[in-house]
């Protein structure tokens, strides 16, 4: 595993550490899952219940979360990435896990895949923070 710095003159460059690819893979998994689920929930719409506000807000939050993970990959691969952003990325994924429990999300295979990807992402970016 190389821990050398990426080429700062290039607008975009690939990770120099193989763990960077693990972090990108985990971000893609959870980002795409959140986008797909957010769009699916949004298209269901109009569920009348006490939590009517959440039925409209939650899908938007899912979509924004997915965009955040996928957009973060773009920043990570760009010349604008800084070492300290690893901590922001870990906090972002951690907030996603906490939000799941705050909103009392039910467990399913998709949830398990997403949470495993988020934990993998956190471990990966914290490792990268300590080595880059």
UniProtKB/TrEMBL annotation:
Domain of life of the organism encoding this protein: Archaea
Keyword terms: Membrane, Transmembrane, Transmembrane helix
Residue intervals passing through the bilayer: 21-41, 53-78, 85-103, 109-129
Cited InterPro entries: DUF7475 (IPR055898)
Protein name, per record: Uncharacterized protein
């Amino acid at each position: 595993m190389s821990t050398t710095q990426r080429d700062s003159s290039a607008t975009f460059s690939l990770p120099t550490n193989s763990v960077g690819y693990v972090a990108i893979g985990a971000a893609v998994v959870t980002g795409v899952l959140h986008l797909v689920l957010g769009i699916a929930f949004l298209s269901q719409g109009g569920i009348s219940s006490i939590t009517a506000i959440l039925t409209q807000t939650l899908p938007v939050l899912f979509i924004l979360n997915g965009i955040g993970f996928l957009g973060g990959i773009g920043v990570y691969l760009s010349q604008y990435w800084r070492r300290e952003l690893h901590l922001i990325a870990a906090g972002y994924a951690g907030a996603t896990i906490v939000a799941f429990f705050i909103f009392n999300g039910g467990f399913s295979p998709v949830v398990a895949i997403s949470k495993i990807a988020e934990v993998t992402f956190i471990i990966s970016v914290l490792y990268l923070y300590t080595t880059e």
